[in-house]
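Q: How would the C-alpha coordinates look for this protein?
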Amino acid sequence: MTTFTTLTDTTLSQDKPFTQSIARAMRDNPKALAEGDVTAPEMIGNSPMYRADASNTSALTFLSLPDSYDLLDFDFVHIYPTTYTSTLLMEVSTDNGATWLNTGYQLADDSGSTSSSSWALTGTSNTFNNTPTVHSINGRLRTMNFASSTVYKQIEGQFFWTSSAPNLIRKRFFGQLDSTTKFNAVRFRFNTGNIANGYIIMRRVRPS
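A: Here is the predicted structure in C-alpha coordinate form.
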Protein backbone atom coordinates (compact mmCIF):
# COMPACT_ATOMS: atom_id res chain seq x y z
CA MET A 1 0.00 0.00 0.00
CA THR A 2 1.21 3.50 -0.84
CA THR A 3 2.15 5.71 2.13
CA PHE A 4 0.69 9.21 2.45
CA THR A 5 3.18 12.05 3.05
CA THR A 6 1.99 15.24 4.69
CA LEU A 7 3.11 18.40 2.91
CA THR A 8 2.98 21.38 5.24
CA ASP A 9 2.42 25.01 4.28
CA THR A 10 6.02 25.71 5.29
CA THR A 11 7.32 23.00 2.96
CA LEU A 12 5.35 24.45 0.06
CA SER A 13 5.85 28.13 0.86
CA GLN A 14 7.06 30.58 -1.74
CA ASP A 15 10.76 30.35 -2.66
CA LYS A 16 11.15 26.91 -1.04
CA PRO A 17 12.98 24.39 -3.29
CA PHE A 18 10.90 21.85 -5.19
CA THR A 19 12.70 18.70 -4.06
CA GLN A 20 12.51 15.12 -5.23
CA SER A 21 10.70 14.07 -2.02
CA ILE A 22 8.00 16.72 -2.58
CA ALA A 23 7.53 15.60 -6.19
CA ARG A 24 7.26 11.98 -5.08
CA ALA A 25 4.68 12.87 -2.42
CA MET A 26 2.57 14.82 -4.92
CA ARG A 27 2.69 11.79 -7.22
CA ASP A 28 1.88 9.17 -4.54
CA ASN A 29 -0.57 10.98 -2.23
CA PRO A 30 -3.63 10.65 -4.51
CA LYS A 31 -2.99 6.91 -4.72
CA ALA A 32 -2.56 6.66 -0.93
CA LEU A 33 -5.90 8.44 -0.47
CA ALA A 34 -7.63 6.05 -2.87
CA GLU A 35 -6.13 2.99 -1.18
CA GLY A 36 -7.16 4.26 2.26
CA ASP A 37 -3.75 4.53 3.91
CA VAL A 38 -4.26 5.03 7.65
CA THR A 39 -1.92 8.07 7.69
CA ALA A 40 -3.97 9.85 5.00
CA PRO A 41 -6.61 12.48 5.87
CA GLU A 42 -10.03 11.04 6.68
CA MET A 43 -12.25 10.49 3.68
CA ILE A 44 -15.71 8.95 3.82
CA GLY A 45 -15.90 6.04 1.42
CA ASN A 46 -15.14 2.44 0.63
CA SER A 47 -11.48 1.72 -0.17
CA PRO A 48 -10.18 -1.53 -1.70
CA MET A 49 -7.45 -2.96 0.50
CA TYR A 50 -6.63 -6.46 -0.64
CA ARG A 51 -7.57 -8.96 -3.35
CA ALA A 52 -7.28 -12.73 -2.99
CA ASP A 53 -7.41 -14.88 -6.14
CA ALA A 54 -8.25 -18.58 -6.30
CA SER A 55 -6.85 -21.22 -8.62
CA ASN A 56 -7.78 -24.64 -7.22
CA THR A 57 -7.19 -23.06 -3.79
CA SER A 58 -8.22 -24.64 -0.49
CA ALA A 59 -9.20 -21.28 1.08
CA LEU A 60 -8.99 -17.54 0.48
CA THR A 61 -7.61 -16.00 3.67
CA PHE A 62 -7.33 -12.41 4.88
CA LEU A 63 -4.85 -11.92 7.74
CA SER A 64 -4.03 -8.91 9.93
CA LEU A 65 -7.42 -7.25 9.51
CA PRO A 66 -7.12 -3.48 9.97
CA ASP A 67 -7.79 -1.84 13.33
CA SER A 68 -10.13 1.12 13.86
CA TYR A 69 -12.58 0.10 11.13
CA ASP A 70 -16.04 -0.93 12.31
CA LEU A 71 -17.05 -2.06 8.80
CA LEU A 72 -15.28 -4.32 6.31
CA ASP A 73 -16.80 -5.26 2.95
CA PHE A 74 -16.00 -8.37 0.89
CA ASP A 75 -16.92 -8.62 -2.81
CA PHE A 76 -17.09 -12.15 -4.30
CA VAL A 77 -16.62 -12.42 -8.07
CA HIS A 78 -16.93 -15.54 -10.26
CA ILE A 79 -16.33 -17.97 -7.39
CA TYR A 80 -17.04 -21.62 -8.12
CA PRO A 81 -16.08 -24.92 -6.44
CA THR A 82 -14.31 -28.02 -7.61
CA THR A 83 -17.07 -30.08 -5.94
CA TYR A 84 -20.53 -28.94 -7.01
CA THR A 85 -22.46 -30.16 -3.94
CA SER A 86 -20.40 -28.13 -1.46
CA THR A 87 -21.18 -25.07 0.67
CA LEU A 88 -19.22 -21.81 0.80
CA LEU A 89 -18.18 -21.19 4.42
CA MET A 90 -16.78 -18.27 6.39
CA GLU A 91 -14.62 -18.68 9.51
CA VAL A 92 -12.84 -16.19 11.77
CA SER A 93 -9.72 -16.21 13.91
CA THR A 94 -8.52 -14.34 16.99
CA ASP A 95 -4.85 -15.38 16.58
CA ASN A 96 -4.30 -14.25 12.98
CA GLY A 97 -5.02 -17.59 11.39
CA ALA A 98 -3.10 -19.94 13.68
CA THR A 99 -6.48 -21.46 14.65
CA TRP A 100 -10.05 -20.90 13.49
CA LEU A 101 -13.14 -20.64 15.69
CA ASN A 102 -15.35 -23.69 15.20
CA THR A 103 -18.38 -23.05 17.38
CA GLY A 104 -21.12 -20.50 18.07
CA TYR A 105 -21.70 -19.06 14.60
CA GLN A 106 -25.33 -17.88 14.45
CA LEU A 107 -26.93 -17.30 11.05
CA ALA A 108 -30.45 -16.33 9.99
CA ASP A 109 -31.74 -16.37 6.41
CA ASP A 110 -35.01 -16.74 4.51
CA SER A 111 -35.33 -20.36 5.66
CA GLY A 112 -34.79 -19.76 9.40
CA SER A 113 -31.88 -19.57 11.83
CA THR A 114 -29.08 -21.94 12.83
CA SER A 115 -26.01 -22.09 15.05
CA SER A 116 -23.05 -24.09 13.80
CA SER A 117 -19.27 -24.38 13.47
CA SER A 118 -19.06 -21.76 10.68
CA TRP A 119 -21.18 -19.31 8.71
CA ALA A 120 -22.73 -20.97 5.63
CA LEU A 121 -22.83 -18.29 2.94
CA THR A 122 -24.54 -20.44 0.28
CA GLY A 123 -27.20 -23.10 0.43
CA THR A 124 -26.60 -26.48 1.99
CA SER A 125 -29.29 -28.37 0.05
CA ASN A 126 -28.65 -27.03 -3.48
CA THR A 127 -26.05 -28.15 -5.98
CA PHE A 128 -24.20 -25.62 -8.11
CA ASN A 129 -24.39 -25.69 -11.87
CA ASN A 130 -21.30 -27.51 -13.10
CA THR A 131 -20.62 -25.28 -16.11
CA PRO A 132 -18.16 -22.87 -14.46
CA THR A 133 -17.23 -20.96 -17.60
CA VAL A 134 -20.68 -19.33 -17.56
CA HIS A 135 -22.02 -19.96 -14.02
CA SER A 136 -20.52 -18.87 -10.71
CA ILE A 137 -21.26 -17.61 -7.20
CA ASN A 138 -21.27 -13.83 -6.80
CA GLY A 139 -22.19 -11.63 -3.87
CA ARG A 140 -21.25 -9.22 -1.14
CA LEU A 141 -20.65 -9.55 2.58
CA ARG A 142 -20.28 -6.87 5.27
CA THR A 143 -18.74 -7.43 8.70
CA MET A 144 -19.44 -5.25 11.73
CA ASN A 145 -17.20 -4.60 14.75
CA PHE A 146 -14.53 -7.21 13.97
CA ALA A 147 -11.85 -4.84 15.33
CA SER A 148 -13.77 -4.18 18.56
CA SER A 149 -12.89 -5.74 21.91
CA THR A 150 -16.12 -4.67 23.61
CA VAL A 151 -19.09 -5.73 21.45
CA TYR A 152 -20.32 -8.87 19.65
CA LYS A 153 -19.45 -9.42 15.99
CA GLN A 154 -22.05 -9.44 13.19
CA ILE A 155 -22.26 -10.01 9.43
CA GLU A 156 -24.85 -9.47 6.70
CA GLY A 157 -24.91 -10.10 2.98
CA GLN A 158 -26.36 -11.89 -0.01
CA PHE A 159 -25.15 -14.31 -2.67
CA PHE A 160 -26.42 -15.43 -6.09
CA TRP A 161 -25.78 -18.63 -8.01
CA THR A 162 -27.36 -21.04 -10.47
CA SER A 163 -28.30 -24.54 -9.35
CA SER A 164 -28.05 -27.71 -11.42
CA ALA A 165 -31.81 -27.56 -12.14
CA PRO A 166 -30.97 -24.89 -13.46
CA ASN A 167 -32.59 -22.30 -11.19
CA LEU A 168 -31.32 -18.85 -10.22
CA ILE A 169 -30.97 -18.74 -6.43
CA ARG A 170 -30.38 -15.93 -3.96
CA LYS A 171 -29.48 -16.27 -0.30
CA ARG A 172 -29.82 -13.24 1.98
CA PHE A 173 -28.58 -13.58 5.54
CA PHE A 174 -27.37 -11.94 8.73
CA GLY A 175 -25.37 -13.46 11.52
CA GLN A 176 -23.67 -12.99 14.86
CA LEU A 177 -20.93 -14.53 16.97
CA ASP A 178 -21.19 -13.79 20.68
CA SER A 179 -17.57 -12.80 21.24
CA THR A 180 -16.02 -9.52 22.33
CA THR A 181 -12.52 -10.66 21.35
CA LYS A 182 -11.05 -8.87 18.34
CA PHE A 183 -11.16 -10.89 15.11
CA ASN A 184 -7.94 -10.34 13.16
CA ALA A 185 -8.30 -12.90 10.36
CA VAL A 186 -11.04 -14.38 8.19
CA ARG A 187 -11.10 -17.17 5.63
CA PHE A 188 -13.53 -18.43 3.01
CA ARG A 189 -13.58 -22.04 1.81
CA PHE A 190 -15.90 -24.80 0.63
CA ASN A 191 -16.76 -27.57 3.06
CA THR A 192 -15.66 -30.11 0.42
CA GLY A 193 -13.19 -29.58 -2.40
CA ASN A 194 -11.31 -26.43 -3.35
CA ILE A 195 -12.15 -23.02 -4.79
CA ALA A 196 -11.59 -23.60 -8.50
CA ASN A 197 -11.53 -19.97 -9.60
CA GLY A 198 -12.66 -16.42 -8.82
CA TYR A 199 -11.52 -13.74 -6.42
CA ILE A 200 -12.53 -11.79 -3.32
CA ILE A 201 -11.82 -8.11 -2.71
CA MET A 202 -11.72 -6.78 0.85
CA ARG A 203 -12.66 -3.13 1.31
CA ARG A 204 -12.47 -1.11 4.50
CA VAL A 205 -15.11 1.56 5.00
CA ARG A 206 -13.62 4.86 6.09
CA PRO A 207 -15.35 6.35 9.14
CA SER A 208 -17.53 9.43 8.80
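The helical segments are 20-35.

Residues 103 and 205 are 28 Å apart (CA to CA).

Upvote if useful.
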